[in-house]
Design goal:
Layout lengths: L5 E2 L1 H13 L3 E9 L17 E6 L2 E5 L3 E9 L4 E3 L1 E6 L4 E6 L6 E3 L5 E9 L8 E3 L12 H26 L3
Parallel strand pairs: 2-11
Antiparallel strand pairs: 1-8, 2-3, 2-7, 4-5, 5-10, 6-9, 7-8
Length: 174
């Protein structure tokens, strides 16, 4: 399922002012939160409902002529549900927001200290030449640990077995 990024009025205003001045805006940070929205996020958003973490953009990539893909690692030992995400300019302006209450965007488990998050958003209709992505230069590499993979696979199988047993007991009226 695709979630559309909403460019905020404040973000568009900062971009418009930069264009008029012959400057660029710098997108520097991604934030995630667990807040729920009573109504869908719209262009008037200036903050996340409940920001949990904010971190530098680690990498970015131009996708075609009208989209930008941002990626970063959520570095935390905490566990939380990610229902909202945003990209911020260097001045702290919320430029674009993604939001979904149910199902949530992602779940950050305590066992995963570095969760890779990535999102692509359209810059169609925006003066993309006036948008600069400032990344941390961090390399995001996927490391496959076979022992951890086997443990996770076994845990998922156990959960599936428990679910199936519970279902059979419910069907049997027990």
């Amino acid at each position: 399922m695709s979630i559309t990024a909403i460019v905020t009025t404040a973000g568009l205003s900062e971009l418009t002012n930069a264009v008029k001045s012959g400057l660029t805006i710098n997108l520097t940070e991604i934030a995630v939160g667990d807040g729920t929205w009573a109504t869908p996020a719209d262009t008037t958003a200036t903050t996340l409902q409940n920001e949990v973490l904010r971190f530098a953009i680690d990498q970015w990539q131009q996708v075609g002529t009208d989209s930008i893909k941002l990626a970063s690692s959520v570095r935390s030992d905490s566990e939380f549900t990610i229902r909202e995400a945003a990209v911020f300019t260097a001045t702290g302006t919320l430029f674009a927001v993604w939001q979904r209450n149910d199902p949530p965007l992602l779940f950050k488990s305590a066992e995963v200290s570095n969760l890779l998050v990535s999102s692509t958003f359209s810059v169609t209709g925006l003066p993309a030449k006036n948008i600069t992505i400032v990344d941390s230069g961090s390399e995001l590499n996927l490391i496959l640990d076979m022992a951890l993979l086997e443990i996770n696979t076994n845990q998922m199988q156990q959960q599936a077995d428990i679910f199936n047993l519970s279902r059979r007991l419910n069907l049997a009226g027990l």
